[in-house]
Amino acid sequence: MTRSIRLAFIAAVGVLMTLPAAAQMRALSDPVVAHPDPESLFNSKDKALHRNKQAALHIMRELLQCNQWERAGEWLSDKYIQHNPMAASGLKGVQEYFINVAKRKPTPTCTKLTSPVVAVQAEGDFVTVLAVREYKYADDPSKSYTTTWFDTWRFVNGKADEHWDPATLPAPAPAAPAAARVGTPEDRAAIEKLMWTYDRMLDTSNADAYAKLFTVDGAFGQTKGREALHKMIVDLAKGQDERRAKGEKITMRHFTMNQYLEFTGPTTARYHYYHQTVFGTGGATSPDPARIAAAGNGVDDLVKVDGQWLIKYRNVAAVDDK
User: CB–CB of 266/182 below 8 Å?
Assistant: First the structure.
């Protein structure tokens, strides 16, 4: 390496070291280019090598490309040893996976290999097929780069008896910090709004909106399901209207106090509180004096469904904490 090239290389490395990680993650290699006539690569003047190459061609074309896995026994041995960590060995296991698990649908006619094969190499009992593999950039899926995939088979009597490729087990997704998973400020604000809306919809007898604050199978005490919850509010409003028609003043307000929000998981929470139900609007000498109709403590189970916090079970008769 000449001095000028060495200095240019050091300068380039210095620039990369100052860039954000995402900006550095770009392919530096030339693109991998497929052969224009891939099937021509599976021929050999040597009869034994030609036989193995042709079997590899059938595996690539009829099995991997056209999914004719019912025919796999024509080119794979019964024991077919796998070295791909995501695949089990054995002909029957391979067929079970592709036919019944992956449910690959076969292409009835399969006359031409279209896979982007780069090269085919054969020596002794081994055949290796190199192919183009394209990947999207994680930070910009509109752009991609190419690299090389390989499959290597060892053949016995014209059938693949063992297989290698560079596959690895998928890496687990990185766990988000606990604070990002449970009890975010956004979750707390959404639950606060949910419980305020609950009292408001109850006081205004808005049966439609009230029922939608619960999960589909949500419950208030023994009243379970949105339809039953809707009817509960309709019946409550009807009873109040009948009493008003008789001249009785009815103004209902529900109060939630001393709240404590307990997150039990990323999408579950318990809402602890004291509650009061008050009728009337004025003081003791008012024509409509305020009077407490009910009071107690409650514990509600909440759940996040499709990004929305809802009431799973409202229990306004919780046992007093000891």
Answer: yes
Q: What is the pLDDT of residue 244?
A: 86
CA distance 153 to 75: 11
Question: How is domain 182-314 classified at the architecture level of CATH?
Answer: Roll (3.10)
**CB neighbour class for 218 (10 Å; exposed up to 12, middle 13-18, buried from 19):** buried
Same CATH fold assignment for domains 28-164 and 182-314: yes
pTM: 0.52
Q: What pLDDT is stored for residue 182 in this prediction? A: 79
Gap between the Cα atoms of 322 and 319, Å rounded = 9
The DSSP output letter for 222 is: T
**Neighbouring residues of 4: CB distance < 8 A, sequence distance ≥ 6:** none
> How does DSSP classify residue 97?
I
What Å distances lie between residue 311 and 199, 232, 251, 273, CA to CA?
A: 13, 16, 25, 14
Residues of the chain with pLDDT under 70: 1-24, 175-181, 284, 319-322
- Reduce the DSSP state of residue 221 to 3 states and report it: coil
In angstroms, the CA 144 to CA 138 distance is 9
Which pLDDT score is estimated for 322? Answer: 44
Are 278 and 253 in contact, with CB atoms under 8 Å apart?
yes
Question: What is residue 177's predicted lDDT score, i.e. its pLDDT?
Answer: 62
- Judge: domain 28-164, CATH 3.30.1330.200: no
The confidence score (pLDDT) of residue 3 equals 56
Q: Where are the domains of the chain?
A: 28-164, 182-314
**Coil, helix or strand at residue 72:** helix
Question: Of the candidates 280, 313, 278, which has an alpha carbon nearest to the alpha carbon of residue 299?
Answer: 313
Sequence-ordered strand ranges (E) for the chain: 76-82, 117-123, 126-137, 140-156, 159-164, 214-220, 223-224, 252-265, 268-279, 291-305, 308-314
Cα 174 from Cα 200, distance rounded (Å): 41
Contacts with 87 (C-beta within 8 Å, 6 or more apart), sequence order? 93, 94, 97, 167
